[in-house]
Design brief:
This protein has 14 helices and ten strands. By secondary structure, it is of the alpha+beta class. It has one domain. A five-stranded antiparallel sheet has the order 4-7-8-9-10. Strands 1-2-3 form a three-stranded antiparallel sheet, covered by helices on one side. It has a two-stranded antiparallel sheet with strand order 5-6. A hairpin with a 2-residue loop joins strand 2 (about 75-80) and strand 3 (about 85-95). It starts with a helix and ends with a helix. Residues about 130-160 and about 285-330 have low confidence and may be disordered.
């Protein structure tokens, strides 16, 4: 029994470490009544190999593999007390390896272009060979002159070969959508994290698992935060809770909303446009996945605001009033 308790203590300490104090921060916030932390025992290399064999030719990315080697999935729920009712506000979840299951992707040319616009720029062979990339099928280096020919070939194949794109379910957001680990089988690019919204539209979120994990923590898993990366944008209730618990995130999303919307204006695949656009964004260092934000900056001011806002019952009926919250923050 002592061994089990010791293992659980170590696991909790590890979780608190990778969450940068987030768990204890949530527990200390006025109004939050429950923070439930659940993790599973680690999995073996043989279990990972079994998954990779069953889903060949795809391999788990190193960051996700390292995560599974410590904990086979993760589930953190947190709730608030509203009078006599407990209301769920946030959830941070990563599916277990067993539930990292393949999903069906209904491909079409427009969607293929959308995927290519992100995966081509991260193709390792293309980036490591002076504007050329390696095509396993032809076993040769393809110059940029033939780049569009390769794009056309992929377009021609997407109907007959449904395995060009393969997605695996990282987290089911229920009413909001699904978080997907997405692979491109024709390019030497690492899998990316995408979000399928309730309209069945695919939305890029981050280049890798660890960047998505950071985003999840920065947003405290508040329900619907992934919608910030969609054409539809955040629900008002999600904006309210982000403004309340993660004001820096809602500020970031509002500042870069126009840039996020611009991603959906690209109807035709234009390699030069995409490349210039990505270079400009990298220079400006505003990539959402690596956005520098410490959720515990100015903790005293943040906690004073929370205490002030949750201090009396009369404020409960204003809890979802975004303008009221913003005014309170400015006082």
């Amino acid at each position: 029994m002592n061994g089990t308790n010791s293992e659980n203590s170590k696991r909790y300490a590890w979780l608190e470490d990778i969450f940068s104090g987030t768990i204890n921060y949530l527990k200390s916030c006025p109004g939050i009544c429950e923070v439930k932390v659940g993790s599973r025992m680690s999995i073996s290399e043989s279990q990972i190999k079994s998954w990779e064999n069953a889903n060949s030719p795809f391999l788990l990315p190193k960051d996700l593999k390292a995560f599974y080697c410590f904990s086979d999935g993760l589930l953190i729920n947190w709730n608030i007390q509203f009078k006599d009712e407990v209301i769920p506000i946030g959830q941070m979840q990563v599916n277990s390896l067993e539930k990292l299951s393949k999903i069906h992707i209904s491909m079409n040319e427009k969607l293929m272009n959308h995927f290519n616009s992100y995966f081509f720029m991260n193709d390792k062979s293309y980036n490591n060979n002076n504007n050329a990339f390696y095509n396993e099928t032809s076993s040769c280096i393809i110059s940029q002159d033939n780049f569009y020919d390769t794009i056309i070939n992929i377009h021609d194949n997407y109907i007959t070969n449904g395995n060009i794109m393969s997605g695996y379910l990282l987290y089911d957001c229920k009413n909001y959508g699904k978080v997907i680990l997405l692979y491109h089988s024709k390019l030497k690019a690492d899998p990316q994290i995408w979000f399928i919204d309730s309209n069945n539209e695919w939305n890029f979120v981050s280049l890798n698992f660890i960047s998505y994990f950071r985003l999840m923590v920065k947003n405290y898993g508040i329900y619907g935060w992934q919608l910030a990366y969609t054409k539809k944008g955040l629900y008002q209730s999600t904006q309210d809770w982000l403004s309340f618990y993660a004001p820096d995130r809602i500020l970031f999303y509002n500042q870069h909303r126009d840039r996020l919307k611009e991603n959906y204006k690209i109807e035709n695949y234009d390699l030069n446009y995409i490349k210039n656009k990505m270079e400009k964004e990298n220079n400006e260092k505003i990539n959402a996945g690596d956005n520098a934000f410490n959720p515990h900056e100015n903790n005293n001011e943040h906690e004073l605001f929370l205490l002030k806002y949750f201090g009396s019952e009369k404020n409960y009926n204003q809890m979802l009033n975004y303008k009221t919250i913003k005014k309170a923050q400015l006082k």
